[in-house]
Every structure is written in C-alpha cells, then in structure tokens.
Write a structure and sequence with these properties.
Elements lengths: L2 H18 L8 E5 L5 H9 L4 E4 L2 H5 L2 H7 L4 E4 L8 H7 L2 E5 L2 H14 L4 E5 L16 H11 L4 E5 L9 H14 L3 E3 L6 H6 L4 E4 L1 H4 L3
Parallel strand pairs: 1-2, 1-8, 2-3, 3-4, 4-5, 5-6, 6-7
C-alpha cells in the first residue's frame, strides 16, 4: 500500500470514529508523526494534503523541517517528544505546538524563550496518567496546579493536555482521566491516541491523534 492510500485509510477511520461518537466532522485533527523519516519520505504526505506533523527530537527536526516549511508555509509542526532545557530556544524557534511541557523548569525556560524571541508556540501539558516512573509527565493530581502555575505565574497559554498510556494497559481509562482533567483545568484540546489506539481515543474526546506507523510504515 502506498503512503497516500495509508493516509486516506487513517483519515477514513478518523471520520468514522467521529460519526460513531456523534462528533462533528473534522473535530479530530490528524498529527502525522514523521519522526526518523527523511524529507523525501515526508513530501508525499504533504503532496496528499497533510499539513500537521509531529516530531520527537528537536535536532532531527532542524535537519529537515525548515526546508519543508519554506516549501509549504502553512505546515503546522508539533513537538511530541521530551524537551530538554538546552533545546528550548531551538524548539520555540521551529515548532508551532509543543505538547510535552512536563515540569516547572521547562515551563519557566519556555516562558523566557518566548519573551526573548517574540514567538508563542501553543502549549500542551504532558500528563503521566499511568504514574510510570520511566515516563515524563505531570501526575494527574498535580496537573490542575501546574496548569495554573503556567498560566497565572508564567503567562503561558496552555491549550491542551497530552498523554501516552502504558503500553500494556487498556488505554480507555487513561483517555477518560485526561478528558476529566481537561474539564477541571479549563483546557479544550486533548492530544491522545496513536497508531494502535487512536479510534478509542476519538471515542473519549481526543481533539488530535498522533499517528505515525499507520501512515509512514514501520521505522
């Protein structure tokens, strides 16, 4: 199956998920996860009309996306991998959305960089719904206070919440928890669901799904 066929299949499944959940058509955004793929492998997706992409690493993204964004200026680029403080300046310069605000130090660094650069990417707070020690993210209990800190003390605009459920668990309860936290925090966007579970995520209210291998193939 060619990339365009795989992309169309994912788009059809998203549309079906919206209908099944009685949600408006187009209410779920597809973030095509292009990490590890070179520009030549990404261009067919751009040619097929895909405009929103996700990357895990700042340095890797710098090697391909400035050129691709110059060719297609209306691309929206999401950082969906962990962000180190020493890469914050580069992330603010390149990305339109940073989904992995996961600790106070990085929030403060981002606030400082945004002021310095005059650029304001949209921000999501990453929530560690499974309380996994090896995984980044704010604990669910600490999330409301952290969102308040970001907004009121640091002047950051937190648009949404993001999670990656434990691989071996049913993702549904994790998606439900994130949706509940979003209501508590007063945020509208929910980034949840990947290639294996994005249809479940749509049923629980995802506003964006991060799909890579189902579009680009195995890495």
């Amino acid at each position: 199956m060619e990339l365009q066929e795989r992309l169309n299949d994912v788009r059809s499944r998203i549309a079906a998920g919206e209908r099944q959940a009685a949600r408006p058509a187009g209410s779920v955004q597809l973030v095509a996860v292009s990490k590890t793929f070179e520009a030549e492998a990404i261009r067919p997706a751009i040619d097929a009309g895909q405009r929103v992409f996700g990357e895990n690493r700042v340095q890797e993204s710098q090697g391909k996306w400035p050129m691709l964004k110059a060719e297609q200026p209306n691309i929206v680029l999401h950082l969906i991998g962990p962000l180190q403080s020493n890469k914050a300046a580069d992330a603010v310069a390149l990305f339109d959305v940073i989904e992995t605000v996961d600790r106070e130090k990085i929030a403060r660094t981002l606030a400082e960089e945004m002021r310095r650069q005059g650029r304001r990417p949209l921000l999501y707070v990453q929530v560690n719904t499974g309380l996994e020690p090896q995984k980044a993210g704010i604990t669910p209990d600490d999330t409301p206070a952290f969102v308040t800190l970001c907004r009121e003390e640091l002047g950051l605009s937190v648009e949404g919440l993001m999670c990656i459920p434990p691989a071996e668990e049913n993702p549904g309860p994790h998606f439900a928890l994130l949706a509940k936290l979003a209501l508590t925090c007063g945020v509208e966007k929910l980034s949840m669901g990947m290639s294996g579970d994005y249809e479940t995520a749509i049923a629980f209210g995802a506003t964006s799904v991060r799909v890579g291998s189902a579009i680009f193939g195995a890495r």
